[in-house]
Structure formats: structure tokens, C-alpha cells
Amino acid sequence: RLIVSKDGYGDYYTLQEAINAVPYNTKAEIVIKEGIYREKIFSDKKDLTIKGEGNVLVTYSDGARELLPDGKKRGTFRSYTAFFSGEKLRLENITIQNSAGSGKDVGQAVALYLDVDDAELSSVNLYGAQDTLFLAPLPDSEREKNGFYGPRFKTERKRNRTIIEKGEIRGSVDFIFGGGDAVFRDVLITSIDEGYVTAPSGNKEWDGFVFENCRFTSPTSLIGKVYLMRPWRDEGKAKFSGCTFGPHINKNLFSPWPGREDQAGLSTFIVEDSKFI
Length: 277
Description:
This protein has two helices and 21 strands. It is globular and about 55 Å long. It has helices spanning 15-20, 103-106; strands at residues 2-4, 28-32, 35-38, 41-52, 56-60, 82-92, 95-98, 112-122, 125-127, 133-135, 161-165, 168-178, 181-185, 188-200, 209-212, 215-217, 226-229, 237-241, 244-245, 268-272, 275-276. α1 links the parallel β1 (2-4) and β2.
């Protein structure tokens, strides 16, 4: 059990230092004391728990369009604020933010990149704009050259499972995306601009994204400017059960991926026992 504190009374001053101190096979719990931690996190641990005490914010500001010293763009999958892989992960009472800005200006900017076999998030807030939360695996193949460049982009596409309870996810375009299976329970889903909430890409035999008793809202006047889903890959799946939708959600709910309109019928999109408010 390690403690991270900015006041000097913990074991480590930064979260990344604490993660680096944990051997891969050692089950560990890291407690983060209240504060703002301006860090870009990379974690590959077998069984890791991270808990925040008080108001804990982990924030960074990388965007996909940023040019790196080699002249190449950073790209979506290197823009993350926090990347986690491994077998088990639990995050509790933490806010993870990508503060790069609007996707119209900086492109994709991932707050949390999850590539964990089994992950649980409780009272975790994820703040960003375009592509806030990525749930691995990646699709089998790219549509543009080097579009997947980043952690694990050459590894086997394995099935991952995530449970997210409470907390808030903020974004604009495709801000919950990827091929993993994920259940969202009692989560506040906030659209900060027009766009699409989900862009699933998982295998048709898997579960996809399931939203249970979630509230979809927007602080701006986006009447009908947001869709619940557009499939990033043709077999993408999303289900919404017992949810409430604000007026920002378009009555059509679903939108095909541009240029793939003829394949829209291959996706799975279900809305049940839900209502507009």
C-alpha cells in the first residue's frame, strides 16, 4: 500500500513514481491524497487499485494534431492522460482529464485509455472533448496509415471487460469509443458540444457498450445536435436501458458512420425503457 501526496507526507510525490515502484506481479493499492496532479500516466500492472482521498485531479493536455520532434503528429492513441493495461484494475474517487481543448482545434484527446482484462471504476470522472474514453481493443485494421500508432497497437486484439459506476463522463465527438465490453451504471454522460456519445467497434459476438440508468445531459443549448451512437466499425454494439435523455439528443438517436451508410444495418443499437426529459 503506497501513498501519494503533494505535501511530502506520503511515500511518493507523483502518481507515476508510485506506479513505477510496483513490480508487475505484486498486488498493490495506491492512495492519492487531495490535489492536482499534472502528469501523463502509463501503467502496466497485474492487479492494481488506485483510490483518491478528497478531490483528486490527474490532468494533462496532449492532442492528436500536435507535431512531435520527428515531424509526425502525436495521433489519437498517444494523446492519453492515463493509460492502463494489465489483468485487474480498480479506480475510485478520481478525476482524469485531458485539457487539450476542443476537437475542432486539437483533434482527438484521450483522457483515459483502458486496455485491462477486467477493470472497475467507481465514482470516477472523465473529462475531455473528442475521444475522452477509449476502451480497448483496437479494431483489427486501420482505415488510415499509422492511425493506431500508440501503446499495444501491434498486440493481439483481446476481449476486455469494464464496469463503470457513478461518476461523470464529459465529451463531444465519439467520446466513449473502442472495442471493449463495458457496462455503465448510474453514470452522468455530459455532452459539451455537438457530436456523438459512443463509437463502438467491438466484435458482434461480444457485449459492446451497455448503459443502465444513466442520465444524458448537456449544459449548452444543443437541441437535437447529439446522437447516442455511430458505429466506428460496422459490427459495433450499444444498448441503453432505463436511461434519460436531455433535449440535446437527436430524436433519431442513431447515426451511421460517414461513408458507411450502407453498412449501418450490421451494427446493434438498442434503446429500451428510456425516455426524454
